Amino acid sequence: MPLPPPAAPRTLTHTRRIRFEGYRRTDGLWDLEAHLEDVKPQDYLLSSGIRAAGMPVHDLSVRPGWRLLPSARLVVEVPAEFIPVLQQSVAMIRRTPAGLQLQPG
User: Fold this and answer.
1) Whether 78 contacts 90, CB under 8 Å
2) Structural domains in the chain (count)
3) Is residue 6 part of a domain?
4) Tens digits of per-residue pLDDT, 57-81?
């Protein structure tokens, strides 16, 4: 569904693209891969120097090693290094009241 026109004139300052891809494995499980790219339409000063307009500020890919059973929507294998992050995320979601609003900060 298209967005309504903006309420005021504006200038693009940042674009973030996130892509997820799922692959069916020959053993019946699925692998997930993700890619994140941040691009600015103007030259951008970084601690390492000037990043030219259109060149990625961030360009990250990850294959977390999760193994999924598609029929059950069940994660059957998670690398050990992801377990603390998942536990923190679940705890945060359980503490979050309905109607959560994300705001700058």
Assistant:
1) no
2) 1
3) no
4) 888 887 776 666 656 555 555 666 6
